[in-house]
Write the structure tokens for this entry.
Amino acid sequence: MPAILEARDLVKRYPVGSGSVEALRGVSLSVDEGEFLAIMGASGSGKSTMLHLLGGLDRPTSGDVVIDGVNVSQLDEEAATLTRRAKTGFVFQFFNLIPLLNVAENVALPFLIAGGTQAEHRARVDELLELVGLSAKAAHRPDQLSAGEQQRVALARALATSPAILLADEPTGNLDYTTGTEILGLLWDSCDRLGQTIVLVTHAASAAAYADRVLVVQDGAILDEIELGRRRDHEARPLITRLAALGL
């Protein structure tokens, strides 16, 4: 399959006092269309920095990010923003829903930002609410939903424009185990049944075990790559065994 996402020699430095801290050190990777990739590492390893660069939320100090054939690192701010809206979807640990909008309006938000109307995209919104099991709560406000339901809304919103790639940053970090497992199952289903490309950042082996492939990040560099394959059991023990062999 062709690569839908590529990173080439990514370096990211942040100024600190009179010097700088290197958060990423020459990272290169590629993600195939329809692949579920997990980026795993401890707090401060550079995994979230990597995700922000891959999604065009931040710019590298040097190196390139190519999303669906577009080198976003070479675009000006306006063009990069438009490309990010068109080609990426994001799910974060904190749901970032708009409290004054109901569930359907939150899902339709990407279309509204692009200048469309909810009515124009009602069929797509209805389809996504059915996918995440919230059709009956389309008119509810976020504060009327459980944490798991709010994350389902965030996932539906991220999928609204059928993005080339979906990026998820610790999407289960604010959820209990059972609810988190449900969200991971929805992510896996969107990859397996819909062909959605997913990059998941996590510190947990139980979450990374849903991926086809895991990149282990340490000190701003890729320490190892672990092939898991497309599996329905999501068994974490093989991954845990491999991580233990790395001393993690």
Notes: The chain has one domain: 3-245. The longest helix spans residues 177-192. DSSP finds nine helices and ten strands in the chain.
